[in-house]
Amino acid sequence: MLAPTDDDVWVEYRVTPRYLAGSSGIGDPGIKPIIDLGGPCHEDGLGNLTVSSPDQRLKVGWFGDDYLLWKIAAYADGFSPPRWVATFNQNTPAEIVAGLTTALAQDYLDGNGRFLAGPSRHRADGFRPLIEAGWRRSASEPGTIAITAPDKQAGLLIDNRRYAPDDDVWTLWAGPPGWGTRAEGTFTTGTPTHLIAATAAAMADPAPLIRCRHQIPRECQGLVQLSPVIPPSPPVPTPLDVRRTAVAQALDRATRTQAAGRRALAAHTRTTLPHPAIKPDHPPTAPRPNRASPPSLPRPAPGR
Length: 304
What we know:
By secondary structure, the chain is an alpha+beta fold. It contains five helices and 13 strands. The protein has helices at 28-35, 94-110, 124-132, 193-204, 239-272; strands at residues 12-16, 41-43, 48-52, 58-63, 70-75, 82-88, 136-138, 144-148, 154-159, 168-174, 183-188, 209-212, 225-228. The protein has a ten-stranded antiparallel beta sheet, covered by helices on one side. A hairpin with a 6-residue loop joins β5 (70-75) and β6. α1 (28-35) runs parallel beside α2 (94-110) and α3 runs parallel beside α4 (193-204). It is elongated. The N and C termini lie far apart (138 Å). Mean pLDDT is 86; it is low at 1-5.
């Protein structure tokens, strides 16, 4: 990874695809939808934050010093065990987690209890956003379903062999294998299918994410497209550049001056000399004789 002293480390880029952008190091985008519900928040002073809905039926934990950075759960009431749990590791972009928490908060505000309804009978509803984004089913073990992104760098695995309440049945992943590179999100058996679909849609969203270069996992930097948020300033011209520019401008001025002189001379010539193609309106006439004086007679020769 680049050294912190490298100026390029702090340049912000738009990163595509977003699922390889890595974590920004803060959980604000993922937590904010639940904070906006107005429930209690608790911070332990070590960077760990827990946010709940006002009735304690929704809980989001952000654990800044743990591999499983996020834990999101729904409860029938404040004292019962969770109906379902979703987790995301430290490599997962918070903007993808926000796809889940935004849909979860909306369910809560609608007051219909949909976030406790359980999964749909149609598993395909959960990965429909991926199929619509061009992801395709790929080979997998018996009893599982695998959906893979066009670049082969992200996917979804559904393990139909698991059915216990706390089993991780759905797994969204992105990036090369490894503790510091692969992003993973898991959903237990009872997770409502529409919430998984909301997370998948956020993952397949083509909109880029803003990251500094050092926040992108090193192994992913060759797999993403980077576009600077602020275009780099043009380079400062060197003394040689300045001299070359001055010479080029002087030559240009001289060329334009010579061209202007030639045009002026041509215009002067056109206005002072008759044009051979132009004929006078009246043809010239011979001079008339003076009739006031009679013609002179020849004189006789001398001696006659």
